[in-house]
């Protein structure tokens, strides 16, 4: 193993999923002791790159070399053996185990330890935390720790299993400014130790100062690369989005628009508490929050996929039955799920059927189904939402991410809902389609629908929403008018 | 083989049903070649047409459950239990061999109701209590068989009026009655799957149960109907078996579960759910009957036949699973909160 060999070198790496090219001929390189910022919007291919690094996925084309050796196949085991550790946004810790146990877990596993030895576990943990320069109660259960400490435990766990490359997914979004400073100090120590770090984020301004290089991904391609000193927050944004100007906000809400949806005291233990809000006809309401803030549980509760323990949802003055998607849909609520591939689409079924499945009951003619009418209506909606599909009978998995999302939208719009809940409407969608989906949202609102957009994509919320609710630990802590919100202000409130 | 006609043939054979039709012809030709004097007779054709409907109807029951990604292993238990309900009505309540056609119809209705009730039981276990279909029906199958034993003490029920024979042995306009029954049921199922909202939803649910829930499909009622339909089909099969055997017993047709599953899978029904056509199942039924009759004529033992069925099931699954894998989507990214 040569000293100057890059830790990881990817050459011409390409990866495609059902109709989406996630990575397209990407070169990527990192040396020991180096910190690299991997920047890109949602859907730019960042997470796919991490998965390749972690050995969870294998590229369709291209070469991955570790320590200068091209790998014939990479599995999570070989990645771990090569010292690659990924710290995901949720840290993947064991909440019920102690700090020491969490830190030593990987190391003990790698050694093939058959028995649990409490003293050894504490020793490993102590040594590791000394390396990072942090003092912490080793016997505290991890679930009792604040977010910043959980992150340190995750870093400690990576180091204890001899990580030489630590990949950190969105490391700063959940931290306060002081905690970010502390984290940067730790990163500097690690680098001096020869550990390489990759920061993966769509908000990187904070970590620029400890990074050597920046790599920007957009639509699966590397669109900019260079020394970190050559980038600032503004130029990063430009490279990530491919445009200079932020999208303009939504058209103003008509004064005196009637209240459409009223949510009162909605609570579910461990998810959200005492949630109150109203939604007017024609209004686009954003709900944002960090991972684990309860935003998805709340969205699901509105559509009956999660049963709240208390509270009510009132649509047009009538109570919407809770905990039953069928009756929520009948009442006029539609829900576009966060994960299209598993929750939204019937991948092997045709595009037409994916739209038509929501309208079967309305096209029944006695025991028969009016197949012609059903198909005609589905085609009409596909055309109205400008779904680019050469053949509507083709399986929906053949479509691109943006078109797939429009298919799910078409299914709901065909049912003429009063309120549409969109969870992550443009996750995994390219920049062009994203703007078009935002235009569709504006259009729906103009027709008098109430739209709720759940997202952690702050520019998206600013571009589409009249009002933004901020969720922290299951509670709505802020109700901000969209016109008065800024990205920085929102980010600060989310992490508060 | 020459490459010239490949494009057209290739496209045609890309359809699983077309491949199956080819296999059926090959099996037929093979058996005809091996035992031409016995296989290629009108008598053999007639005998085959009386033999296969009973397990073919069971294969339809497997097909509809498998389309949802489930399975119904209790079909043979239901079939026997329902046949015994019918036979007990005919022998204990009705005036024995002198019972009129009214008693016969009443006993058939009772058997169908029994099948529906058994299916409802399965459906509640699977749709409302959330048991995995394979375990729920494995258990309930034993319950139904146990009930059948309890009703009869395990012995065969005999002594029916002559009219019982019609369903399994009679002919109508030169066609065996059981064949007509199977034809009507197969056509009916095919129609339900392709022309009704229920059929569409069954296939969509099978393709992605989670997406069906998110699309506000009434999943619980859907599954309930599927297992009731399966139970009623099994009841019809039980009545055909009873007629052909001129008796009813708790342990008839023990090999039919495997055979029915084999036929459904051979017929191109995706055991993970979401795809399957009745025409494929019909072709698979004929293929299996040709194979079965042929092996019979070649004096292959019954045990060897079960061995062949098992091996064939695994072989077909291996081939099909490779195709399905290629078509299935990648596992989705673990993202977003899951609370």
From TrEMBL, chain A:
<dbReference type="InterPro" id="IPR003593">
    <property type="entry name" value="AAA+_ATPase"/>
</dbReference>
<dbReference type="InterPro" id="IPR017871">
    <property type="entry name" value="ABC_transporter-like_CS"/>
</dbReference>
<dbReference type="GO" id="GO:0005524">
    <property type="term" value="F:ATP binding"/>
</dbReference>
<keyword id="KW-0067">ATP-binding</keyword>
<keyword id="KW-0472">Membrane</keyword>
<feature type="domain" description="ABC transporter">
    <location>
        <begin position="255"/>
        <end position="496"/>
    </location>
</feature>
<keyword id="KW-0762">Sugar transport</keyword>
<dbReference type="GO" id="GO:0016887">
    <property type="term" value="F:ATP hydrolysis activity"/>
</dbReference>
<keyword id="KW-1003">Cell membrane</keyword>
<keyword id="KW-0813">Transport</keyword>
<keyword id="KW-0547">Nucleotide-binding</keyword>
<feature type="domain" description="ABC transporter">
    <location>
        <begin position="8"/>
        <end position="244"/>
    </location>
</feature>
<dbReference type="Pfam" id="PF00005">
    <property type="entry name" value="ABC_tran"/>
</dbReference>
<keyword id="KW-0677">Repeat</keyword>
<keyword id="KW-1278">Translocase</keyword>
<dbReference type="InterPro" id="IPR003439">
    <property type="entry name" value="ABC_transporter-like_ATP-bd"/>
</dbReference>
<dbReference type="InterPro" id="IPR050107">
    <property type="entry name" value="ABC_carbohydrate_import_ATPase"/>
</dbReference>
<protein>
    <submittedName>
        <fullName>Sugar ABC transporter ATP-binding protein</fullName>
    </submittedName>
</protein>
<dbReference type="InterPro" id="IPR027417">
    <property type="entry name" value="P-loop_NTPase"/>
</dbReference>
From TrEMBL, chain B:
<keyword id="KW-1133">Transmembrane helix</keyword>
<feature type="transmembrane region" description="Helical">
    <location>
        <begin position="101"/>
        <end position="129"/>
    </location>
</feature>
<feature type="transmembrane region" description="Helical">
    <location>
        <begin position="279"/>
        <end position="297"/>
    </location>
</feature>
<keyword id="KW-0472">Membrane</keyword>
<feature type="transmembrane region" description="Helical">
    <location>
        <begin position="173"/>
        <end position="194"/>
    </location>
</feature>
<protein>
    <submittedName>
        <fullName>ABC transporter permease</fullName>
    </submittedName>
</protein>
<feature type="transmembrane region" description="Helical">
    <location>
        <begin position="254"/>
        <end position="272"/>
    </location>
</feature>
<keyword id="KW-0813">Transport</keyword>
<feature type="transmembrane region" description="Helical">
    <location>
        <begin position="303"/>
        <end position="320"/>
    </location>
</feature>
<dbReference type="Pfam" id="PF02653">
    <property type="entry name" value="BPD_transp_2"/>
</dbReference>
<dbReference type="GO" id="GO:0005886">
    <property type="term" value="C:plasma membrane"/>
</dbReference>
<feature type="transmembrane region" description="Helical">
    <location>
        <begin position="56"/>
        <end position="89"/>
    </location>
</feature>
<keyword id="KW-0812">Transmembrane</keyword>
<keyword id="KW-0997">Cell inner membrane</keyword>
<feature type="transmembrane region" description="Helical">
    <location>
        <begin position="18"/>
        <end position="35"/>
    </location>
</feature>
<keyword id="KW-1003">Cell membrane</keyword>
<dbReference type="GO" id="GO:0022857">
    <property type="term" value="F:transmembrane transporter activity"/>
</dbReference>
<feature type="transmembrane region" description="Helical">
    <location>
        <begin position="222"/>
        <end position="242"/>
    </location>
</feature>
<dbReference type="InterPro" id="IPR001851">
    <property type="entry name" value="ABC_transp_permease"/>
</dbReference>
<feature type="transmembrane region" description="Helical">
    <location>
        <begin position="141"/>
        <end position="167"/>
    </location>
</feature>
């Amino acid at each position: 193993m040569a000293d100057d060999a890059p830790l990881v070198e990817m050459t011409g790496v390409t990866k495609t999923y059902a109709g989406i090219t996630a990575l397209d001929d990407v070169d990527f390189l990192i040396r020991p002791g180096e910190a690299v910022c991997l920047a890109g919007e949602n859907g730019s291919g960042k997470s796919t790159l991490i998965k390749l690094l972690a050995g969870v996925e294998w590229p369709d084309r291209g070469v991955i070399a570790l320590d200068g050796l091209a790998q014939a196949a990479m599995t999570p085991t070989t990645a771990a053996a090569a010292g690659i550790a990924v710290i995901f946004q949720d840290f993947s810790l064991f909440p019920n185990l102690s700090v020491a146990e969490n830190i030593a877990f990987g190391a003990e596993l790698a050694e093939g330890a058959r028995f649990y030895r409490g003293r050894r576990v504490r020793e490993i943990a102590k040594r590791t935390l000394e390396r990072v320069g942090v003092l912490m109660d080793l016997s505290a259960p991890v679930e009792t720790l604040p977010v910043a400490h959980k992150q340190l435990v995750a870093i400690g766990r990576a180091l204890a299993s001899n990580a030489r490359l630590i990949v950190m997914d969105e490391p700063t979004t959940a931290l306060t400014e002081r905690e970010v400073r502390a984290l940067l100090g730790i990163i500097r120590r690690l680098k001096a130790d020869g550990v390489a770090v990759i920061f993966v984020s769509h908000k990187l301004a904070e970590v620029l100062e400890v990074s050597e290089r920046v790599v920007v991904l957009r639509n699966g391609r590397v669109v900019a690369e260079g020394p970190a000193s050559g980038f600032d927050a503004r130029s990063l944004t430009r490279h990530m989005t491919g445009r200079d100007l932020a999208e303009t906000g939504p058209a103003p809400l008509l004064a005196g628009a009637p209240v459409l949806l009223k949510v009162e005291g909605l609570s579910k233990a461990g998810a959200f508490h005492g949630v109150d809000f109203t939604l007017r006809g024609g209004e686009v309401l954003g709900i944002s929050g960090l991972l684990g803030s309860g935003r998805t549980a709340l969205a699901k509760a509105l559509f009956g996929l999660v049963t709240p323990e208390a509270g009510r949802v009132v649509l047009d003055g009538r109570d919407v039955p809770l905990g039953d998607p069928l009756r929520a849909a009948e009442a006029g609520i539609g829900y576009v799920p966060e994960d299209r591939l598993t929750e939204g689409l019937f991948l092997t079924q045709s595009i037409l059927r994916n739209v038509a499945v929501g309208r079967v009951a309305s096209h029944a003619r006695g025991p028969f189904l009016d197949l012609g009418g059903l198909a005609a209506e589905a085609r009409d909606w596909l055309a109205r939402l400008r779904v680019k599909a050469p053949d509507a009978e083709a399986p929906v998995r053949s479509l691109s991410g943006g078109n797939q999302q429009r298919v799910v939208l078409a299914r709901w719009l065909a049912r003429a809902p009063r309120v549409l809940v969109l969870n992550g409407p443009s996750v995994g969608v390219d920049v062009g389609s994203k703007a078009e989906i935002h235009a569709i949202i504006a259009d729906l609102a103009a027709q008098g629908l109430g739209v709720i957009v759940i997202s952690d994509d702050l520019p998206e919320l600013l571009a589409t929403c009249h009002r933004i609710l901020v969720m922290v630990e299951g509670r709505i802590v802020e109700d901000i008018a969209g016109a008065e919100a800024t990205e920085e202000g929102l980010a600060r409130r989310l992490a508060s | 083989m020459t490459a010239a006609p490949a494009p057209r043939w290739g496209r045609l054979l890309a359809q699983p049903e077309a491949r199956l039709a080819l296999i059926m012809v090959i099996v037929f030709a093979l058996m005809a070649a091996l035992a031409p004097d016995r296989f290629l007779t009108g008598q053999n054709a007639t005998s085959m047409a009386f033999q296969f409907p009973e397990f073919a109807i069971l294969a339809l029951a497997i097909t509809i459950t498998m389309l949802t990604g489930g399975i119904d292993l209790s079909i043979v238990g239901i079939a026997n239990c329902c046949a015994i309900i019918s036979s007990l009505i005919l022998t204990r309540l009705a005036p024995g061999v002198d019972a009129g056609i009214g008693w016969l119809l009443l006993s058939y209705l009772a058997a169908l109701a029994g099948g529906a009730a058994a299916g409802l039981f399965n459906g509640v276990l699977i749709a409302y209590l959330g048991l995995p279909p394979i375990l729920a029906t494995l258990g309930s199958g034993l319950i139904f068989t146990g009930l059948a034993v309890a009703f009869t003490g395990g012995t065969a029920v005999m002594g029916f009026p002559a009219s019982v024979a019609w369903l399994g042995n009679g002919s109508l306009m030169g066609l065996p009655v059981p064949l007509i029954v199977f034809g009507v049921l197969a056509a009916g199922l095919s129609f339900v799957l392709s022309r009704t909202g229920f059929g569409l939803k069954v296939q969509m649910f099978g393709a992605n149960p989670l997406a069906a829930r998110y699309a506000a499909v009434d999943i619980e009622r859907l599954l309930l109907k599927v297992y009731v339909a399966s139970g009623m089909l099994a009841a019809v099969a039980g009545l055909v078996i009873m007629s052909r055997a001129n008796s009813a017993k708790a342990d008839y047709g023990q090999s039919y579960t495997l055979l029915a599953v084999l036929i459904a899978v051979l017929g191109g029904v995706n055991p993970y759910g979401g795809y399957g056509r009745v025409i494929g199942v019909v072709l698979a039924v004929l293929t299996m009957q040709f194979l079965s009759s042929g092996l019979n004529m070649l004096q292959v033992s019954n045990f060897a036949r079960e061995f062949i069925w098992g091996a064939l099931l695994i072989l077909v699954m291996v081939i099909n699973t490779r195709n399905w894998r290629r078509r299935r989507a990648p596992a989705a990214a673990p993202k977003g909160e899951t609370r």
